[in-house]
Amino acid sequence: MIKHHIHPEILMAYAAGNTSPSVSLIVASHITLCAECRKTVEDFESLGGKLLENSDTVETNDSSLDDIFDKIDDIESNIELVKPTKKVNSFKNIPSVLSNYLPDGKAITDNWKKGIGGIKYFDINLGDFKQDTHARMLSIPPGKKLPHHGHESQELTLVLEGGFKDENGSYNSGDVAIEDENNIHTPVSDPNEGCICLVVYEGRLKFKGFFGPILNILNR
Fold this sequence. Notes:
This protein has helices at residues 8-15, 21-33, 35-54, 64-77, 96-99, 212-218; strands at 113-114, 120-124, 133-140, 149-151, 155-166, 169-172, 176-179, 188-189, 195-202, 205-207. By secondary structure, it is of the alpha+beta class. Strands 1, 2, 3, 5, 6, 7, 8 and 9 form an eight-stranded antiparallel beta sheet that branches. Strands 4-10 form a two-stranded antiparallel sheet. Mean pLDDT is 82; it is low at 75-79 and 209-218.
């Protein structure tokens, strides 16, 4: 049972098309698993449709549409991103909207990069790095304690398999942990299953403790 949901203001922004590509990916993945948040998004979309129906028309220049398409072309030509590829067999427990961005393999973590302490990761480039927003898949071994850290801005973590706990609570499959610049925590993965999760964060992590200064330098 999902206990930790995405904040309504984020769901509203998503329904209005005002979230970054990375945040849109984590919201789309979560609402695939969470009926409650999916219903909230549908309600926001319905409300937005009614507001558009009742809004006054606004005159625009004949060239406005061409200008918009030109800007879209400029953006697409200046970024390189991982495009989703249709897979016949999606990974177990991973929403298809997300699994299509992941590299092929018999197991979900095949072809991911190896980090310290047995952690594996895969960065998803959705072209919003200019907004300093990042999307990263993490596979954390059972019982692994991550470094004590804070955040420059918002961080959203969607648990896909296993779980983790920190100073703010316990998070299992489908749950979303939301941190910001006011939170400092030390996540510990589930002692039996470990944790596979999608993390979307803005800015950089701010590591604390004895090794904090060294980790902050490596994180630049």
